Amino acid sequence: MMLRLRSVLSLLLVVITTFLVSCSGPAAKVPDTYTPDRLAQIQLYATPVDEARQGMETLGKFVQENNWIDTRTYIHGPLGFLRRDLTYLANTLLPSDQKAAKNFIDEIFAHLERLDVAAQNKNEAATSTEYNNAIADFDAFLRLIPSDAEAS
Ligand code: ZN
After folding, report:
1. CATH number of the domain that 52 lies in?
2. Which of 26, 38, 114, 149 could form a disulfide with 130 if both were Cys (CB 3.0 to 4.6 A apart)?
3. Structural domain that includes position 109
4. pLDDT tens digit string along 39-53?
């Protein structure tokens, strides 16, 4: 019985080792530099994000005017795909930059959600603060994008 278990275990070990080796082959190696291919991909995903960054200026105008309704409509409408677009772009970055990028995405959305609530409560001070913080985190996110890939 013990012998049998031992041979099952060693067979299992062979299977696991084979699996691990096949998973860490050269194809699975993560690139650690921005290759021209990767830069082209980044440029593609950066386009909707650049548009959204321009949209943030429109949002800023509504916030400044204390236009609560348009502020809320803009967050849920034109900026409705922002999280998806930012995540697509973050996923094209080098693994070393992705964690920081995803933290900034969480930050941007925490501020936009609070901005939404502040606009609902017609809270002038809070809308300005949350808007400014959202912009600061958005720009910090953009600084992670390699400049060679920025839309020309
Ligand atoms: Zn923040």
Report:
1. 1.20.120.290
2. 114
3. 34-147
4. 999 999 999 999 999
